[in-house]
Amino acid sequence: MSGPVIPIHPQAERALVDDATPVGELPLQDAAAHLPHYMRAGTLQLQALPPLALYVHLPWCLRKCPYCDFNSHEWRGAESVIPEQRYVQALMADLDVALPCIWGRRIASIFIGGGTPSLFSPDAIDTLLAQVRARVSLAPDAEITLEANPGTFERDRFAAYAQAGVNRLSIGVQSFDDAKLRILGRVHDAAQARAAIEEASRVVPTFNIDLMFALPGQSLEQAVAEVQQALAYKPPHLSLYQLTLEPQTPFAKRPPEQLPDADLAADMQQAVADAAQSAGLERYEVSAYGRPGHTSRHNRNYWEFGDYLGLGAGAHSKLSFAHRIVRQTRRRQPERYMQQAMSGAAMEAEHEVARRELPFEFLLNALRLREGFNPELYTRRTGLPLSTLHPGLQQAVRLGLLHETPDRIAATPRGWELLNEVLTLFLPPAASNSREAGRIPDSTV
């Protein structure tokens, strides 16, 4: 496949990408000439770059939920409104500096997360997306998701987001029970959640509902009833998460009373999964259920070990080059991020993923998918031979945790339930003796 001609320019300039270039893998020779630092010799040999997504983090919220461990900040500024214009300018300055890392690569999806992105006005989102389009090549059918809190819902707001280019809304309902919502520290009630879902179904082609289960004092029947309420709206996509007590959160320090035990939580997981699948939603990932044509393309890119550029306070990036895979982190504090981004220093840290860590990192994502992965994808995404998986793979197959065929490696039903245990079989040697597999990330960033 012949690649596009990419201009070399020290400042932001739109990459000249041929419209015929498909979304997906790009020949490395088109990027190599412009990235001497990243393209120097290394231990990997990637044949092509994976698809690329864009994540934009809007960090402010009205009130931080006691279970939340994301980089979110309650807005307590002296001004009455969030500094939208200044933050969008910082995002674009951040993108300008990052452009040489993604020359010639088309963006397949955009996810605007937080925080509470729906605190930003439709005008600010319109400006953000317009300025992104002015700098990068965006796929004509790009999935553009915005997370929305029902507590910020206004009837015309969602329609205005759609006019700005958002074509997928992710509604953070979490529960339809007002008492449970108060325990979770949510700023909305059940009526606002229902109104937000109804409006989302009217103004965008597809939407997601986030729900939690294993809530304090929740019975198995109540958990299923919550899912049934969501299913009544015929959502194209549903995300079902177990409430977990993440380190350093208020819930971890002061756990709420009457949390379901592990056995009841496992029963809830199976029951809510059965309810969603009975309604025609396929459980295609550990926490994600979608109708045909409505699975999350952005999140699937994460799970298939694709690349993503993260912009905004605390955002993370994963970028592939010919001989290395690099991870980056932006500065976490919004004020410092805005200041540093305007001077070209939004990035706080960057490191090259060690060759020995890649098998675990790939599987941490890919085994979340029910279908698993094609062995060829492992080689394409990591630059490693399949033999680097063999010791752990053979043991997992012998234990009945993974299933292997010539064209597919996937978790068995038992392996899917014990995914953290499966992953420990693939930890790098030094790490496997010193730490656990760790938390499997949520399906949204």
From TrEMBL:
<dbReference type="InterPro" id="IPR007197">
    <property type="entry name" value="rSAM"/>
</dbReference>
<comment type="similarity">
    <text>Belongs to the anaerobic coproporphyrinogen-III oxidase family. HemW subfamily.</text>
</comment>
<dbReference type="InterPro" id="IPR004559">
    <property type="entry name" value="HemW-like"/>
</dbReference>
<dbReference type="Pfam" id="PF06969">
    <property type="entry name" value="HemN_C"/>
</dbReference>
<dbReference type="GO" id="GO:0004109">
    <property type="term" value="F:coproporphyrinogen oxidase activity"/>
</dbReference>
<dbReference type="GO" id="GO:0005737">
    <property type="term" value="C:cytoplasm"/>
</dbReference>
<dbReference type="Pfam" id="PF04055">
    <property type="entry name" value="Radical_SAM"/>
</dbReference>
<dbReference type="GO" id="GO:0006779">
    <property type="term" value="P:porphyrin-containing compound biosynthetic process"/>
</dbReference>
<protein>
    <submittedName>
        <fullName>Putative Coproporphyrinogen III oxidase</fullName>
    </submittedName>
</protein>
<dbReference type="InterPro" id="IPR006638">
    <property type="entry name" value="Elp3/MiaA/NifB-like_rSAM"/>
</dbReference>
<feature type="domain" description="Radical SAM core">
    <location>
        <begin position="46"/>
        <end position="282"/>
    </location>
</feature>
<dbReference type="InterPro" id="IPR010723">
    <property type="entry name" value="HemN_C"/>
</dbReference>
<dbReference type="GO" id="GO:0051539">
    <property type="term" value="F:4 iron, 4 sulfur cluster binding"/>
</dbReference>
<dbReference type="InterPro" id="IPR058240">
    <property type="entry name" value="rSAM_sf"/>
</dbReference>
<dbReference type="InterPro" id="IPR034505">
    <property type="entry name" value="Coproporphyrinogen-III_oxidase"/>
</dbReference>
